[in-house]
Specification:
By secondary structure, the protein is of the alpha/beta class. The protein has 14 helices and 17 strands. The strands form two sheets. Strands 1, 2, 3, 4, 5, 14, 15, 16 and 17 form a nine-stranded mixed β-sheet that branches. Strands 6-7-8-9-10-11-12-13 form an eight-stranded parallel β-sheet. The protein is globular.
């Protein structure tokens, strides 16, 4: 059983029940678990690897609750740069229809590399289209290769334009086939154990791309197999208008009617979630993936984040897809979450520590992972480590808040399950230059049509 000692950190922010912040801190791990944590003097023991972290701050590994990793291949597409959600989708659907299995894996590796280099150790991914033989397996292979703790969600679109949906019919799948593949990936890949590196969730895409029947059947399947549920909800005004016109109810009412509220469910965005909806989410333990960069990029609005938090809604952060962010940097997402709430409610709306809590404890809670998101003996050995002596943070009087107010750039170290996957700012698990060369070549193929 390998052991790791991180020692003499300027600060360890535990985000534990007491929210301890330990100066000259150290943490000792064995077999992917935290065994001891305290000051360097208190946690002084031999280990297989010892990393001296003078001039560094340590926080729990960040948890990303919403992504579309395939979209790294379609960043900054000209026709989608200045579009709202529906027009943005209509511009990109034809490009996404040309995706292939190698593209899915490559795009996932690039997204995962970005996440790990920003200190993210756990991520979900919402893959909801499967053209040309693409499978969820392609992203699962990428996560295993790069060393990311991964929640892969088997998404779906089944209602094409001819049936009143938004996507083209060519991207709509047959619903019985969708349910069969959901069964397959659960049986093949889902690991329900504590500390699992791989989980499966089920994720029909949105009210405007799947039928109510598929939503109900997916919920029944998920609960019979003990896996979580995920979808988009109340993302924009047009999204809400579609639900009201087609189903004669609000998005939250629609979700409740279909059995899509509960502690095993999390919804992306919820920008336009109304007050009764917030109340129902809080009462049922339903989670929210807050994606401020994407919401701003598409002009979807400012999510009622502080109202949700006051009501007791479980909220985590998500970078969303790289065609609407266009980045996979979760620390940057925490900064935007803080700043965006201040735009509408003033500088006391959300603090830097609260933003970091959304990215750690909040995300872990949304994904149902009580062993992640904070640092204490018995918790997972997932860490993000950032320098405190770099250009961006030089002169910072509050090392922890400085991670949000003055982002320090890439993580110096990222540790997942006790394994160092980013060391001195470099990935240890994949060779980045050839990966990026392959990624750029695939993006060029998509652009040519």
């Amino acid at each position: 059983m390998s052991s790791l000692l991180l020692t003499h950190a300027d600060l360890i922010a535990t985000f534990d029940a007491e929210r301890r912040e330990i100066a000259d801190g150290a943490v000792y791990c064995e077999g992917g678990r935290i065994v001891a944590l305290g000051t360097a003097a208190e946690v002084d023991r031999p280990a297989d690897e010892v990393i001296d972290l003078r001039h560094h701050v340590v926080i729990p590994g960040l948890v990303n609750t919403h992504h579309h990793m395939f979209q790294t291949l379609t960043r900054a597409v000209p026709g989608a740069q200045n579009a709202e959600l529906f027009a943005w989708l209509e511009c990109l659907y034809p490009m996404w229809a040309r995706l292939t299995p190698p593209m899915i894996k490559t795009s996932a590796l690039v997204a995962m590399a970005e996440l790990l280099l920003s200190g993210c150790t756990t991520s979900s991914d919402h893959l909801y289209l499967f053209p040309n033989g693409c499978r969820l397996d392609d992203t699962l292979e990428a996560a295993e290769e790069i060393g990311l703790r991964f929640h892969a969600t088997r998404g779906a679109m089944s209602v094409g334009r001819s049936r009143g949906g938004l996507p083209p019919d060519t991207l709509a799948e047959d619903e019985p086939a969708i349910l069969r593949d959901m069964e397959r990936v659960i049986s093949a890949y889902h690991d329900p154990a504590r500390f699992a590196m791989r989980r499966i969730a089920l994720a029909p895409c949105s009210p405007f791309s799947v039928s109510p029947e598929l939503m109900r059947e997916t919920a029944a399947l998920a609960r019979s197999r003990g896996v979580a549920l995920h979808t988009h909800l109340a993302e924009s005004d047009r999204d809400v208008a579609y639900t009201r016109e087609r189903f004669a109810c609000t998005p939250a009412e629609y979700a409740e009617e279909l059995g899509w509220l509960g502690s095993d469910v999390w919804h992306a965005h919820c920008v336009q979630l109304d007050t009764p909806g917030i109340g129902r989410f809080a009462a049922t333990g339903t989670g929210v993936a807050h994606c401020p960069c994407s919401n701003m990029r598409l002009g979807s609005g400012i999510a009622p984040l502080t109202a949700m938090l006051r009501a007791g809604v479980s909220v985590g952060l998500g970078v969303d897809g790289s065609a609407s962010n266009d980045s996979s940097d979760l620390l940057a997402e925490a900064r935007q979450a803080m700043l965006l709430q201040r735009v509408s409610q003033g500088p006391a709306a959300l603090s830097a520590r609260q933003a970091l809590e959304l990215a750690t404890r909040g995300g872990a809670r949304v994904l149902g992972r009580d062993e992640l998101g904070s640092l204490a003996p018995g918790m997972a050995a997932d860490f993000a480590v950032f320098r405190t002596d770099g250009l961006a943070s030089s002169g910072s009087h509050d090392l922890l808040a400085g991670l949000v107010f003055c982002p320090p750039g890439p993580a110096a170290y990222t540790v997942v399950n006790g394994r160092v996957v980013v060391r001195a700012g470099r990935l240890t698990t994949v060779d980045l230059p050839p990966l990026l060369e392959r990624h750029r070549a695939q993006a060029r193929v998509l652009s040519r049509g």
